[in-house]
Amino acid sequence: MCARPATSTADRYLESIFCIAGEGEVVRPGRLSQWMGVSPPTVTDALRRMERDGLVMISEDRSVELTGIGRERATSTVRRHRILERWLTDVLGLDWAVADEEADRLSSAMSELVVEQIDSSMGMPHTCPHGNPIPGREPTYGTLVPLVTIPDKTPARVRRISEVAEHEARPLLKRLSAVGIKEGSDVVVVSRDGEAGSLTIVVDGTESALPLEAAQWIWVDVGA
């Protein structure tokens, strides 16, 4: 596995491509532009350079895929970020949103030796705080479905918060944390209000309201 810190623009693109594809989306320049907050021409120029360097493949329909080398670098970048997020939340006690931002900053500043030591000191966790797998490790849960889709009164367990919420809606992470939703939380949908656009849920015995938009990004294991 590539051990270099994620310091270059290419690494940020590789990480974004990895995460978007991991959500089951087809990666295209327009989606990368939205995800990264840069202009379409900037994305096009970056992808051309990355294609030239053998990091990505661009199809005729403009979909983008990682090459073997590109995936190796992307995997290393994502791995470092998720390990540091876990450390920042579990050991230092930062909330989800702050930990995500700080992991971005620390990833390029810490040596691989320090990251490995942090990982080992935590017992080599399988996931980041949001339940997304640390590359190379497989979490042990069944087929996941969005919380918004499960029938009312059906017991479920929170396993993962979508990368979309983690990356594009960081304030939502604060909201989820405030109502007690985290990896491993037991949750039941009590009722739903289409007009208000919200669900009433019970999380680990406590009732709360949750926007429908947020519920689509929470992946649960039904009957866990």
Draw up the topology in text.
Blueprint (H helix, E strand, L loop, with lengths): L8 H14 L6 H8 L3 H13 L3 E3 L5 E3 L1 H23 L5 H12 L4 H10 L23 E2 L9 E6 L1 H6 L1 H9 L7 E8 L4 E6 L2 E6 H4 L2 E5 L2
Helix pairs in contact: 1-4, 2-3, 4-5, 4-6
Q: Overview of this structure, please?
A:
α1 packs across α4 (68-90), α2 packs across α3 (40-52) and α4 packs across α5 (96-107). This protein is of the alpha+beta class and 224 residues long. β5 (186-193) and β6 (198-203) form a beta hairpin. The longest helix is centred in the middle third of the chain and has 23 residues, at 68-90. 44% of the residues lie in helices and 17% in strands.
Key descriptive features of the protein:
two-stranded antiparallel sheet, alpha+beta, single chain, 224 residues, 9 helices, 6-stranded antiparallel beta sheet, 8 strands
Question: How are strands sequenced across the largest beta sheet?
Answer: 3-8-4-5-6-7
Strand content: 15-25%
> Helical segment tally?
9
Structural Rg: 18 Å
Low-pLDDT segments, ≥5 res: 1-7
User: End-to-end distance, in Å?
Assistant: 33 Å
What sort of overall outline do the alpha carbons produce when their principal axes are compared? globular
Overall pLDDT, averaged? Answer: 86
| Estimated structural class | alpha+beta
Helix content: 40-55%
Total beta strand runs: 8
Question: What is the N-to-C succession of helices and strands?
Answer: HHHEEHHHEEHHEEEHE
Main sheet summary:
6 strands, antiparallel
